[in-house]
Design goal:
Elements (H helix, E strand, L loop, with lengths): L38 H21 L7 H11 L5 E5 L5 E6 L5 E5 L5 E5 L27 E2 L21 E6 L10 E7 L2 H6 L4 E10 L2 E10 L5 E7 L2 E3 L7 E3 L5 E4 L8 E4 L4 E2 L5 E5 L5 E5 L4 E8 L3 E6 L11 E15 L4 E12 L1
Antiparallel strand pairs: 1-2, 2-3, 3-4, 5-10, 6-7, 7-8, 8-9, 9-21, 10-20, 11-20, 12-15, 12-17, 13-14, 13-16, 16-19, 17-18, 18-21, 19-20
The protein binds 6-O-phosphono-alpha-D-glucopyranose.
């Protein structure tokens, strides 16, 4: 693991001094997916969608966040040029991280969703579904949304839990003062409120840090039981990755694992064994690989792969909706780190921590 950013209280805005120097990236110039909806096409789509939703939000009298709110957050937490609070998609307050090497990432406070991760070349790695909306009427459909405290359907709460459907708070921002290693980072926090308690009667704190280390994206999630009784949870980082075409995409690192095939009925999965060296896509796919290894790779079909290295996430989910989403299924695959097969039990005062790193490599 590379060194962590030194925590830097953002109340005193930090302007990194010293010479500016980019780190060698993971895959400078690696050719990323360029499907029919290319990265630039996607970005344009996203801006258009954002514009549409902003208009709707005003018409409906919904205030996503005023410019003054965003300015105040930026004044408090911004580290100019490295960590900036901006009006993101649909005007949602969004933290933009920019690494000295040219890479960037964006995280919305609504849902703590990583909506964008770009390499230094400007290539977007993540995928935003065309039906994504940014007015808080539903979770953001794309990027890396959270599933917490529930992965999948539940009788007690919405599919995949409430974390992707509520506002998180910025706890801190940082940038490493070492001139060679300026990892911009934001830490977001979610705690219980009346809404979460109506579905899940527990006191908790989720602390989620997102950082850029060169072109590599890093997420660190901690869940703390702040209440007086134990609770169980499941979770996932529901990562949407853009591919050239779903039929050219391949996931490796899953051979030999037992998986739950949820395609027929998510509530009654069928247990199977993965015999394939590379998982390819020829129809709807919804598989939870149990006790997965800490490394999987998604070949996006352009001569590049997204590598996913994790720690403490027990399972990997591979999902393609296929023609159930006719407008977009060809352009993405979800490869998700999940904690599903063994729910985590936390006693009062206990915490669980998991980490994940995404990088791009040439094949
Ligand atoms: O549409 P969403 O609620 O975002 O869920 C999208 C998908 O997420 C996961 O990958 C699950 O395994 C699927 O069963 C589910 O359909």
């Amino acid at each position: 693991m590379a060194c962590r950013a030194v925590a830097f209280a953002a109340q005193a805005p930090f302007t990194a001094g010293g010479r500016s120097r980019s780190r060698a990236g993971v895959a400078h110039g690696a050719p990323l997916a360029r499907p029919a909806t290319s990265s630039s096409g996607l970005a344009t789509q996203r801006q258009r969608a954002a514009g549409r939703r902003a208009t709707l939000a005003v018409r409906a009298g919904v205030t996503v966040a005023s410019a003054a709110d965003i300015e105040a957050l930026n004044k408090h937490f911004g580290i100019p040029g490295r960590v900036d609070v901006i009006a993101g998609p649909g005007g949602l307050p969004t933290v933009r991280l920019q690494h000295a090497c040219g890479s960037s990432a964006e995280v919305t406070l609504f849902g703590a969703c990583i909506t964008s991760w770009k390499q230094a070349s400007g290539d977007e790695v993540l995928y935003m579904r065309p039906d994504a909306v940014f007015d808080k009427s539903k979770p953001i459909s794309g990027g890396i949304p959270h599933c917490f405290p529930q992965f999948g359907p539940s009788d007690k709460m919405q599919q995949h839990g409430f974390a992707r459907n509520v506002d998180w708070q910025i706890a801190s921002t940082s940038a490493d003062p070492q001139p060679d290693d300026r990892d911009p980072e934001v830490t977001l926090v979610l705690t219980e409120n009346e809404y979460t308690k109506s579905m899940w009667p527990h006191s908790f704190r989720v602390v989620y840090s997102v950082a850029l280390h060169g072109e590599l994206l890093r997420a660190d999630m901690r869940v703390l039981n702040t209440g007086l009784k134990p609770f169980d949870f499941t979770a996932a980082l529901h990562t949407y990755i853009e591919v050239v075409d779903v039929e050219q995409a391949k996931v490796s690192g899953l051979k030999g694992l037992t998986y739950l095939d949820k395609t027929a009925d998510p509530k009654k999965p069928v247990e199977k064994k993965e015999e394939r060296e590379e998982v390819t896509f020829t129809g709807p796919t919804d598989s939870v690989y149990l006790k997965a290894k800490d490394y999987v790779e998604l070949d996006v079909g352009s001569g590049a792969a997204v590598t996913i290295t994790s720690n403490k996430w027990s399972d990997v989910v591979v999902w393609s909706p296929w023609t159930a989403m006719p407008d977009c299924y060809r352009s993405f695959v979800c490869v998700e780190n999940a904690q599903f097969s063994t729910p985590v039990t936390l006693k009062p005062g206990e915490f669980w921590r998991s980490q994940c790193e995404w990088a791009v490599k040439d094949l």
